[in-house]
Amino acid sequence: MNAVVPTVGLADIEAAAERIRGHAVETPLIESPALNDRTGLRVLLKCETLQRVGAFKFRGAYNRLVQLNDDERTRGVVAFSSGNHAQGVALAAKLLGIPAVIVMPDDAPSVKVEATKGYGADVRFYNRLSGKTREEIAAEIAQERGAVVVPAFDDPHIVAGQGTVGLEMLRQAHALGATLDVAVAPISGGGLLSGLATTVKAHSPQTAIVGVEPAQFSDTLQSLQKGERVTIKPTGRSYCDALESPFPGEITFPIMRRLVADVALVTDAEVADAMRYAFSTLKLVVEPGGAAGLAALLAGKVSTFGGTTVAIVLSGGNVDPEFFGRVIRGEA
Amino acid sequence: MNAVVPTVGLADIEAAAERIRGHAVETPLIESPALNDRTGLRVLLKCETLQRVGAFKFRGAYNRLVQLNDDERTRGVVAFSSGNHAQGVALAAKLLGIPAVIVMPDDAPSVKVEATKGYGADVRFYNRLSGKTREEIAAEIAQERGAVVVPAFDDPHIVAGQGTVGLEMLRQAHALGATLDVAVAPISGGGLLSGLATTVKAHSPQTAIVGVEPAQFSDTLQSLQKGERVTIKPTGRSYCDALESPFPGEITFPIMRRLVADVALVTDAEVADAMRYAFSTLKLVVEPGGAAGLAALLAGKVSTFGGTTVAIVLSGGNVDPEFFGRVIRGEA
Fold first, then answer.
1. Do A324 and B328 touch (CB under 8 A)?
2. Which residue of A143, A172, A242, B211 has the fewest CB atoms within a 10 Å radius of its CB?
3. Is the CB of A317 inside 8 Å of chain B's CB atoms?
4. Which residue out of A283, A287, A294, A329 would a mutagenesis test of the B interface target, given it has the greatest number of B Cβ atoms within 10 Å?
């Protein structure tokens, strides 16, 4: 099959921004003098932790669902996700009056499962290691009901929605008198990073785009190095439950290949350090995957390409209290 | 003694705003659709947790210290505080190159003690229950060195500095298209609330000002009811270590008497609930005293006087990880 892979442009992202206006939160871009002192840089933090559902995922989900026609809305949607996309789709569906079935791994953080159920979604579980894959389960449900599958990242409307983070980031940085030398975001399937990169590069071509992956899930780095999409065989779990995609998306990969300057890998220990720093100094609750960019920065792994102003997306804050307690006490 | 008690006006607060500009953080005023849904109100949260030192106290401290003359700067400053004022004075002193001695209770949260030391201050401890009072110790040190005592709230420059929170809050609310029906802040000695009230009432006389105290430290409520400053005998500790003043200030009380519409009292359980809500839904780290306003709102204790738009100061986020972990796990 050689179907043309759709891409996403600035106009798509601007249209998405119009669609989500008044529904998504315009999250603050904050600056911490303490973090600036520590890094010797000017660091701006885009707090998607403060987005609806506690993660950027609401943007793409709402942008996708609001474009369904009446017939599709009646039949409903189905999505699979370890948590944040699940919540984004569940809340967007609730707001738009669309039935939603969400397929989640049975070891998803309970805080994410409960929130997804709380938005009224019908949650179905699967086991990561046995039985049908989540793709198979979702496809079955979709077929049964004629429901629309809402992918977590490999969908131009999803990418366009996530790209709205970049529009706000640029406008807010400008208001602070800052010109971005580097923009950093975590990578799972690449929806956020490819959307962000599209926006930022269109408005500010000199800004370097840097992605961050867990060391155990370096599929995007490997794919970029090889020049084609690589699927990795994970050797273990990562603290970053939100970043465990084993491959970059078909749509997102070509965008990242064209626009991303560097990918940093972070360890669980570095992620925990960043979560503790966010708790103790920034006073922000950040989940492991959401802290990946900050982790790379604090570990000295973000190349600044000679620049001094770095914007980082703190992409989510949905973390189980038990695990968070262990992290802040230094036990994880 | 019938010395005239100084008061604080809008011009003092505007001058303070000029002095702290570029030194203090202009903290965001955020809105959470989930919190709006839960309360049926429009709630705006002024995140002083994101201020330097993690609390609004930096504003007043910097405004006081920057006005010292060269001779006073050389002799240094001394302050007593359970934590946030300590950190505010310590950091302002460090930035201005002024030596600082801070007198702290020996049971102050270690996170506050360590931060105060981290800013280079000389920390001296006292015991809450025995020996000299902190006032006596501070007075001795001041006399010894010719140092200036920097009070935590009963000083017009401190009150003016804290009042800058209100200037930002009003401007930011306006930018969001919101008109404040109620503005809420916690009360310890009343520095924040009297400064906030002065600013808000000058620009927006129809906004009701509401203070919140821990139920065990209802000195301001009792004072307002009696029409004169009452000193209470605390019967126990509160989770709100930052709000344990046993009396309102000589300067702050007349301002609060004139401008405050209501005072709500919150229990430790309500404060813990608010901290958990801030963690799980807002993704913000808020210390017990900093969460008092939110606690009152969530407990249905904030009178809205028929209005629908409420701004609340989240005044600080300095909390020991051990205690925070217990709170979010529901064990405190």
1. yes
2. A143
3. yes
4. A283
Say how many residues make up chain A: 332
Whether the CB of A286 is below 8 Å from some CB of chain B: the reply is yes
What is the nearest CA distance from B275 to chain A, expressed in angstroms? 12
Cβ-defined contact of A329 to B321 (cutoff 8 Å)? yes
> The pTM is what?
0.96
Give bridge partners of residue B284 from the DSSP assignment.
A284
Kindly state whether residues B164 and B93 are assigned to the same domain.
no
**Is B17 in the same domain as B137?**
no
Chain B CB contacts of A279 below 8 Å: 285, 321, 324
Q: Is residue B241 part of a domain?
A: yes
Q: pLDDT tens, B140-189?
A: 999 999 999 999 999 999 999 999 999 999 999 999 999 999 999 999 99
Neighbour-count burial of B73, counting CB atoms closer than 10 A to its CB (0-12 exposed, 13-18 middle, 19+ buried): middle
Q: How many CA atoms lie within 13 A of B200 on its CB side?
A: 35
Domain that holds residue A48: 10-55+155-328
Q: And the tokens for B187?
A: 């009360």
C-alpha span between B187 and B222 (Å, rounded): 13
Buried b (16+ CB within 10 A) or exposed e, A69-106: eeeebeebbbbbbbbbbbbbbbbbbebeebbbbbbbbe
Pair A50, A25 in one domain: yes
Q: Quick check: B324 contacting A, CB < 8 Å?
A: yes
Q: What is the ipTM of this complex?
A: 0.96
A285 near B CB under 8 A: yes
